[in-house]
Amino acid sequence: MRGAARPGPRGRGRLPGTRGLRAPPPPLLLLLALLPLLPAPGAAAAPAPRPPALSPAAAGPSVSLYLSEDEVRRLIGLDAELYYVRNDLISHYALSFNLLVPSETNFLHFTWHAKSKVEYKLGFQVDNFVAMDMPQVNISAQGEVPRTLSVFRVELSCTGKVDSEVMILMQLNLTVNSSKNFTVLNFKRRKMCYKKLEEVKTSALDKNTSRTIYDPVHAAPTTSTRVFYISVGVCCAVIFLVAIILAVLHLHSMKRIELDDSISASSSSQGLSQPSTQTTQYLRADTPNNATPITSSSGYPTLRIEKNDLRSVTLLEAKAKVKDIAISRERITLKDVLQEGTFGRIFHGILVDEKDPNKEKQAFVKTVKDQASEIQVTMMLTESCKLRGLHHRNLLPITHVCIEEGEKPMVILPYMNWGNLKLFLRQCKLVEANNPQAISQQDLVHMAIQIACGMSYLARREVIHKDLAARNCVIDDTLQVKITDNALSRDLFPMDYHCLGDNENRPVRWMALESLVNNEFSSASDVRAQRETEREKQTPHCAESPTRGSGLDPRTLRP
Q1: What domains does the chain contain, in order, with CATH numbers?
Q2: Cα angle value 187/188/194 (rounded, 5°)
Q3: Which of 88, 261, 286, 467 is catalytic?
Q4: What is the tens place of the pLDDT at every residue in 345-388?
Q5: Mean per-residue pLDDT for 538-549?
Q6: How many other C-beta atoms lie within 10 A of the C-beta of residue 496?
Q7: Known active-site residue 356
């Protein structure tokens, strides 16, 4: 019979009437193959060119060969029958389509029949025998087409040795009556074959024998899926470790701050208060000996300050409580005078490193003049310890003191090159047109946020400042603002403090009502001072009444 498969090199047969495998045509070709078979709904099918028929016989063999509706749905998801030959008419559209066989599909089913005697001969060609075995069928390689509707099966089994796309050609020769009267039908298929990845031991006793389990459904994405899940797992592990490290560091820093605060509070309060049981957890180094802690109705921790309370602390006691941060006078070099009052001065100084004399740091140096009294010196040392032991980016606590005998005490703070915030704002307002340091409204808002952050930290630490104002803040060239203590503020800014008849100078404009009347201070009173500080930044050079905005008449205030 013409068209029989003839073995070629390496066992590959080349069927007559074929020119080898071609690239798969566009998927649209399949739709074109099905269109003649599916008439339009609601209308009669238009007459189409009649496809070529099988070689004629006397009465016509009426051969039909097609894929059933279930088979088409399984292969390509369409609800239709795909005819290759229908009553002797050949559909070259369907035959020319190179159908992709899903990788999990190992069997193809063809339905056929003939009314009269038709002989067939079946052969296969595979372009990669390493990836796929020779296809097998459940019928003989040659014989007669059945006279009743029958189904034959073609098995396409991959070897599992390599990953490759395999091209399959199935050639069917149909012969009617005479050996010279035959028709060749070529069916093209392609299938992806994948390498086997999983091996399972068949027996615990026989360790040398193993069998391979191959899942074509999951074989394709196995490698990429594993890589994806491994990557996700590694990323999650790294994020988890980083979160743990950050949490540990945060807890460690919080414990260190609490330890520093407790040491500073306990050591300072003992020297600044009489040896009694009056000291509470709210009293810090700036708290006088007879300050009484109370609790207001709002729930804020408050302090009641009695008159002349700071004067009860002696100079020796104040020096003893800052002895642990005392340094030698030789390490301090005084340069320019930044601010000067009646008895106090603030210098721009240089601090030499204790271990390396070649390393120097700039610093603020607060000190007093020769005519300063012992009470004024004691107040400077006591008020300088207000923020000692606190750590925040918007706070500026003292770092060292110099209390050598025969020398005036000095308080050292880190340097901020634009100095006092009140003086800086006043300079910017007075010469705003020509000053290169002129600031915008956005800068003022940024300063307000920084002050709020610092005061929020103090509230969380249950520390009451009691004298928040622009005069007690400093600023650098990056517009970073830090809150500092109020040491020497009464002397350097006398216009901001007023005596109400009790020989006690107070910042009336920044004080809350309960602080003025009852000498009670709390976080709420600090909020009142913060609001006035924000208004002060808007008009830092305007001369205002000390009670403006407070709703108070200074004539009615009595100690």
Answers
A1: 6-193 (2.60.40.2170), 253-556 (1.10.510.10)
A2: 135
A3: 467
A4: 999 999 998 888 889 999 999 999 988 888 999 999 999 998 99
A5: 51
A6: 22
A7: no
